[in-house]
From TrEMBL:
InterPro entries: Aldolase_TIM, NADH_flavin_oxidoreductase, OxRdtase_FMN_N. This is NADPH dehydrogenase. Keywords: Flavoprotein, Oxidoreductase. Residues 33-266 form the NADH:flavin oxidoreductase/NADH oxidase N-terminal domain. The gene is namA. Gene3D superfamilies: Aldolase class I.
Length: 477
């Protein structure tokens, strides 16, 4: 398979992007990344954000475990001033996997220790944590809840590939949809989770509305009847209620949301060459948010822009823009050089995906003015992600540059950049997708392998990856 990344300098990225018709500037001047930025009433010390990334390494009851603590110590020490803690379920039946963190009274002390240790590591490493913003992404996994899918509407393309593990069958039109009363209970669960989050030391919480988990699916529930479906007003009722109630009842928290500004549609691997192709689908599309119903490749941003303007009014103080669905169209969420095991070879140049991320996040940042927006999709740019990020910050396209996979291989990337002017090539993520592959591996006694970076955090995750391969081979036998 052709590989795409072949750049020797930041300007090579810009030049290659131009051949594809995109304006992706890069700058050698990284100073904009080291400027503070206001988030709510706080000043955040630099423009580096660590994206939320599940480690899938909690205990079966959702308590942080040894590897969870290790990850947050490393993130804390790394120098980024916005640490966006991972997807943490607000209810056991909304967990995405058997080792996902769960916020409840029993786990509160563990989460508190995880956050406090992260802060202490930050202080020890860079001297000051007054300008560190640390929080958690609160989630209900909805359709992707591992015990049983909890859907808010049927999706004619996604339903036939949504597995109900409790029956071993894919779901169909007869599968039950969560009722309006169920959603009201979920609103209360968010409230309880927010209160606990404040108690355990979060500066902010993210009400997760991305990647087609529950609140994200609801944004596109155009044919759902009742109070939470159909009109834009109804589809945003739950996020409106949750945001306004938390703003009123837990005012000490900064409210944030990571949301899908564009869903697209599911892809599959084409038989002849394993390149991704869209699933066969009928037009108009019924449930894809931020997407032209007549052409899934085209973003339609009227509703996402309306959403963020409303969110700002309701009290949202920090946004992170994402898109796509990690299971059904991973090339949109995380442009990669090598596809994940359950994916396909990229149907587009990764720069197409990166240009989509940049174009959409710029539009959202323009819409909300001074509310800071975190941009995504940087890891594929490898050594030159900081240069491209600095250009995007300098020209006002976004306020903060979010790094995902890159932080698993090189958690101290900010410190290294500050001290040496460049990343450590030996630790730069090459988007091999091992992290996603570990996340997809579930054939151990816990029903889930922990994820991290086998090639560059070898000591810990190398043996885990070997085990995954060996046990998969013995399963094949
Ligand atoms: C192992 C792994 C776990 C992830 N977990 C989450 C998560 O908990 N919440 C979320 O919003 N995104 C999650 N993501 C997506 C990342 O936050 C990020 O959007 C994506 O990797 C693209 O950014 P990057 O190119 O810098 O990696 C995860 C990605 C990976 C690879």
């Amino acid at each position: 398979m052709a590989r795409f990344f072949k750049y020797k300098t930041p300007s090579d990225v810009t030049a290659d992007a131009a051949t594809l018709g995109y304006d992706i500037p890069a700058t050698e001047d990284l100073a904009p990344l080291f400027q503070p930025v206001a988030v709510g009433d706080r000043s955040v010390g630099n423009r580096f954000a660590i994206h939320p990334m599940e480690g899938c390494d909690g205990t079966l009851d959702g308590h942080p475990d040894e590897l969870t603590y290790r990850r947050y110590l490393r993130f804390g020490a790394g120098g980024a001033k916005l640490i966006w803690g991972e997807a943490t379920a607000i209810a056991d039946d909304g967990r995405m996997n058997s080792r996902q963190l769960l916020i409840n009274d029993d786990n509160a002390a563990g989460l508190e220790k995880m956050l406090a240790d992260c802060r202490a590591a930050h202080r020890e490493s860079v001297g000051d944590d007054a300008d560190l913003l640390l929080g958690l992404q609160l989630t209900h996994s909805g359709r992707f809840s591992f015990r049983k899918p909890k859907i808010v509407c049927h999706d004619p393309i996604l339903d036939p590939i949504t597995l109900d593990k409790s029956t071993g069958k894919f779901i169909d039109a007869s599968y039950p949809v969560l009722t309006d009363d169920d959603l009201k209970r979920i609103e209360d669960q968010y409230l309880a989770a927010a209160r606990l989050a404040a108690k355990v030391g979060c500066d902010f919480i993210d009400l997760k509305q991305c990647h087609r988990y529950l609140l994200s699916e609801l944004l596109g529930a155009k044919h759902r009847p009742g109070e939470y479906g159909g009109s834009f007003e109804n589809r945003t009722r739950l996020i409106r209620n949750i945001t306004q109630r938390i703003a009123a009842e837990v005012p000490e928290l900064i409210l944030a949301t990571r949301f899908n500004a564009y869903d697209g549609i599911p892809y599959r691997s084409r038989a002849e060459d394993k390149i991704g192709e869209p699933y066969p689908h009928e037009l108009p599309l019924q449930v894809a948010f931020g997407t032209n119903p007549e052409n899934h490749r085209e973003e339609w941003l009227d509703e996402p822009v309306q959403l963020v303007e409303n969110l700002k009014q309701w009290g949202m103080q920090l946004l992170s823009v994402s898109m796509g669905n990690p299971y059904a169209n991973p090339h949109i969420v995380r442009p990669a050089e090598f596809p994940p095991v359950d994916g396909y070879h990229s149907p587009e140049h990764p720069l197409d995906g990166i240009a989509r991320h940049f174009r959409i996040s710029r539009r959202i940042q323009q819409a909300v003015g001074e509310v800071p927006v975190v941009g995504s999709g940087y890891s594929w740019l490898q050594d030159f992600a900081p240069h491209v990020g600095a250009a995007n910050v300098a020209n006002g396209s976004i306020a903060l540059v979010g790094f995902g996979r890159a932080t698993l291989s090189h958690p101290d990337f900010v410190k290294t950049l500050q001290e040496t002017g460049s990343l450590n090539r030996k630790k730069v993520c090459r988007t091999f997708s091992y992290c996603t592959n570990l996340m997809r591996a579930k054939h151990n006694e816990l029903g889930q392998y922990a994820t991290g970076c086998p090639p560059f955090d070898k000591e810990v995750y190398g043996p885990l990856w070997d085990e995954v391969k060996q046990s998969a081979e013995s399963q094949d036998d």
